[in-house]
Amino acid sequence: MFSLGFYGNISSDEGKVAVIAKIDGIINPVTERHVKNIIDDAEDKRAELVVILLDTPGGLLSSTRNIVGTLLGSQIPVVIYVSPSGAQAASAGTFITAAAHIAVMAPGTNIGAATPVSSSGKDLPDTIEDKATNDAAALLRAIAVERGRDIDKLEATVEKAISYSYDEAAAGNVVDFIARDLKNLLIKLDGYEVQSMGTSIVLETNQIQTQEIQMSLFDKFLSILADPNISFLLLSIGGAGVVIELLNPGLVFPGVAGIILLLLAFVSLGNLPVNWA
């Protein structure tokens, strides 16, 4: 049974519930917030498990670390499902997928190429690159040990920028198995044993209900702001508005609009918390 819900609307009164959510795009603080809300809400409602459909080219390492921490600390089993066909769990997505209790890929997907690069996509200076690469490799090794995945293959995604197809990842113990679609995934999860916070849990998904959690409108707005191109436009137009107001005192509108746009630009750039703005 499929139904649609939002934060706070998950109910397990009618039986076991699987929370379904989606991460599609760049990993950033908005994604981090979204994942935390999903898992916190699922834990509050005592859902059976959380399934996150993942398709990402990568993102910020700081946000990735926080998401990894949330996944490793989740009391409810979390399934990261790289889906649909053609999707990827590249770069930051490799860390997130590996940190899940159960990692699954759809046919036609790939994972890996997790070598750190600068925010502009260019290679880092040698010294910084060595530090960032070693740090990222150590994080993946720790995740691999915690989740029982192949350490060498995961480490190679950072140190050698190796990427694996869905079948290579499943055969190499980078992920647990392959599922054609969500229905097939839930069938395969029935009776699956998973370790969560030192406790062995046997999943019962044969007759499980599913409820989808969508990103709130506010978070969608923040996600749009997180685009570097949008940040640049907000900063440029906002700065121009303030300059016009300074050159022509009393116009009011350019100054007010400029300040608002600059505030949004600083939120987008991560220099100003949302609550202050």
Concise overview:
This protein has 277 residues and is of the alpha/beta class. It contains ten helices and twelve strands. It has helices at 29-44, 61-72, 92-99, 126-147, 151-159, 166-171, 182-189, 217-225, 228-247, 253-269, and strands at 2-5, 17-24, 49-55, 78-82, 88-90, 102-105, 110-112, 163-165, 177-178, 193-196, 199-202, 209-213.
Architecture overview:
The chain has about 280 residues and is an alpha/beta fold. The chain has helices spanning about 30-45, 60-70, 90-100, 125-145, 150-160, 165-170, 180-190, 215-225, 230-245, 255-270; strands at about 1-5, 15-25, 50-55, 80, 90, 100-105, 110, 165, 175-180, 195, 200, 210-215. Helix 2 links the parallel strand 3 and strand 4. The longest helix is centred in the middle third of the chain and has 22 residues, at about 125-145. Residues about 1-15 have low confidence and may be disordered.
